[in-house]
Every structure is written in C-alpha cells, then in structure tokens.
Amino acid sequence: MPPMEPKNAPESSERKVEEDDEASIRYVDLPLHLTEKILCCISPLESARLATVCKSWAATVSARLAARLAPHLLVTLTREYNNVSVRRGFIVPVPLDGAVGRTRRPPAAFPARRRLENLVGKWSQCFGATPCGLVAFAAGSILLVNPVTDTVQRLVVDKTSRAVLASGGGDYWFLCFDRINRLVLFSRADASQEYWSKRLVAATADLRYNIVVAAAICNGCIYLFHMSEYLLKIDTRAPQLTLHKIWVAPLMEQHIPKRYLIECDGEVLLVRQLRARDEKFPFTFCHSQFLRVVGFEVYKLDETGRRWTPLETLNHDRALFVSPESSFAVRASEVEGCRSSCIYFVGEMQRCYLCNKKCASTWGVYSMEGRKVLFEHVVSKTGVSVEARWSSSHHTLT
Ranges for the KIB1-4 beta-propeller domain (predicted)? Predict the structure, then answer.
C-alpha cells in the first residue's frame, strides 16, 4: 500500500476551494433588473464612472451611453488660494427640462478624471468639444480626451500651432498654423480616429486664429465666421484647398459679441446672443449691472442670395446648444427632457472690475416660438471664476 499523505491533501483541496470561491466572486454579475433600477436614479455620465463594478453593469452602462445623447456641461473652476490661482475641472449633468427645485434636486457634478484634470490644472488651452464628446486641448500637440473613460488620443502638430475646431454633420476637423504661418487642415482619414490626413490650405484672405469667432462644417465645406461679421470658406472637395472670403450682407444693426456657427440639417446657421442690463437679477455688482441673456437671433445662410435669412423657429424637431467653442444641433426627440425649437445656452460669468466681485455663471433655455427665456439656473456659486461649455453625444466605454 503506498504511503498516505494526510497533511498535503487537505491543503491542496482547501486551496482549490479558495481559488474557486475567489473566481466565483470575481466574475459574479448583478441581475439585470437591479442594475436597471440603480441606473435610473443617476445620470448616464455619472454611472459610467462605476462601469467596472461587474460585467452586467458595464454592458448596461455602455449600451445606455451609446443609445442616447447626453448633453452636459464641461466646467472649469478657478479659485484663489494664497494669491495662487488653482483650476479644477468638473462634468455637470443638467436636467434639460429645467425641473429643478425642492422636489427634484439637480444631478450631482463630479470631478474630471485624472488626465482631464491634469490638463485643466496645467492651464492647457481647451478650444472645444467634438460631436462624439471628446474634449480638445492644445498642449504642444492636440489632445482629445474622453471625459468618461479618461483615454487620450494625440494628434501631432507643430508646437507653435494655434488650433481651430470645426464640426458638423457628426464630423470634426482642425485648422492649425505651422511654424512659417501656413494654414494646415487635419481631417480624419477613417472612422477609427487613428489616422489623420494633413493638407495645406492656400489663403486668399487674412486669417489669424484669434479673430475666428466660430467655425462649422457643412456639405464638405468649412465655414469660418470672422469677428468683423464676414464669412470665410474652404471647400475640402476641391483638389487644391483655398481659403477665400464670401461676400454676405453683414448684420450691422448692433454689435453682438456672442455669435455661434452651427450646421443643422445641411444648412449653416448663425446664432446671435442678445443681452441686456437687468437690475432685478439676484446677483448684483457694487459698481455695475449684470448683463442677462434676454434672447437670441437665428439666421440661415443663403449663399446664392448672399445674405442671412432670419428664422422664427427651428424645423424637424430640432434644438440648438450654444456655448463658446462648442455648439451643435440635436433632434429633441432623441434627447431625454430636451425641448424642440429651443436654444440651450451658457451665460458666462461676469466681473465688476472696480470691486473685483464675481457673478455666478448660468445655463438656461430660450424658446424660439415663445420668444422668451424659459428658465435659467446657476452653474456655480459666486466668487468662483467659471468657464463652461456644452459637450454631448454618444460616449463609449472603449
């Protein structure tokens, strides 16, 4: 009879049982009905931070983010600590129906993840957000950060370049200046965003990055709105790219500092924000009045007639989101709580330069049919410098 080893057998069996237990715990999935109930209580972007809880959770969150648009605010807060300015980034989900009050609290803002937070903290230049929800930074190269997954894509450009982001129709391109001040267009060579094509643009009109108010892509062309109220155009379908000026009758009734260019249903729209002094606004300055958003004007480009045609309302269940360097159009029926024929706007923070008092930033909704601001909510408290812009669209967890 072979010798028995009673001590070794129990150890190996116990070790096997422990490994099986660990494996079963590691790969356990929550029931689908439980994950659905939990996700209904929090915003899609907030749920993405917890996507690693289990496989079923990750699958549900990924499908939820990919299926519906989730417009949100990318907010940069700047505070003063011992005469040192410190910047932090936050993602702020907002209830698009405006239902915020005692019975319904606004969704909680959550801090930006590590890579996005590092870029914000280093004062890197954020110059827009893409239709797929990536945040664009100019930090030597162009960095595209996914605020949900915290992944980064790098587009290598000249270190001295200044970038302009143009978007529309679900696509986005970059215009940069190289070391010898030549204009360069970067466009995606494929849908994977891994390969970019680079083409030089011959300029027949003066263009500097700091005088471009807004940019949009429409029907294969890039439209740039100049601060002097005229349009520049690049036809990317031509064999030789050329930047030239389009003569369109300017809108010179009054100076409008806030202007946005948006592609909507194959048309180029110009949106102008109207502001007026409001003594009744709850946030007042010591030596100046608060400029409150009181309305918007929307015009459609008539390139053949060389004019801007005013629009009284938006067609086809559309809504517009406008903010500095990030504006887009959505189909209202595809976005939870979104109102059709409305403009979702960001009211930028203002400061009294005599007493150095700051006023809160706001976001709100303007109805084109009712011709009035439906509601306006505070983004941040007073005393904090805030930069806010809209970001949206179908996020993925990969």
Answer: 124-356
The 3 state secondary structure assigned to 213-255 is EEEEEECCEEEEEECCCCEEEEECCCCCCEEEEECCCCCCCCC
The upper half-sphere exposure of residue 166, i.e. CA atoms within 13 Å in the direction of its Cβ, equals 27
Q: How far apart are CA 21 and CA 53, in angstroms?
A: 18
CATH number at residue 169: 2.130.10
pTM beyond 0.85, yes or no:
no
Q: What is the dihedral of CA 268, 269, 270, 274, to 10 degrees?
A: -170
On the question of pLDDT at 103 being above 50, the answer is no
If one counts every other C-beta atom within 10 angstroms of the C-beta of residue 177, the result is 19
**Residue carrying structure tokens 């143009």:** 166
Which two structure tokens, joined as six digits, stand for 106?
């606004």
* All residues at 6 or more sequence positions from 289 whose CB lies less than 8 Å from its CB, including other chains: 277, 278, 279
| CA 190 to chain CA mean position, Å | 22
Q: How far apart are CA 55 and CA 151, in angstroms?
A: 20
Neighbours of 217 (CB within 10 A): 23
Report DSSP letters for 22-60, one per residue.
Answer: HHHHHT----HHHHHHHHTTS-HHHHHTTTTS-HHHHHH
Name the residue range of residue 363's domain.
10-391
Half-sphere exposure of 193 (CA within 13 A, CB side): 20
In a domain, 90, yes or no: yes
Q: Is residue 3 part of a domain?
A: no
Give domain status of residue 48, yes or no.
Answer: yes
Domain-embedded: residue 396 = no
Nearest CA-CA partner of 91 in 48, 141, 37: 48
Distance separating alpha carbons of residues 187 and 184, to the nearest angstrom: 10
Amino acid present at 259: R
Considering its fold, how many domains does the chain have in total? 1
DSSP state of 16: H
pLDDT at 375: 87
Tokens at 126, concatenated? 């954020």
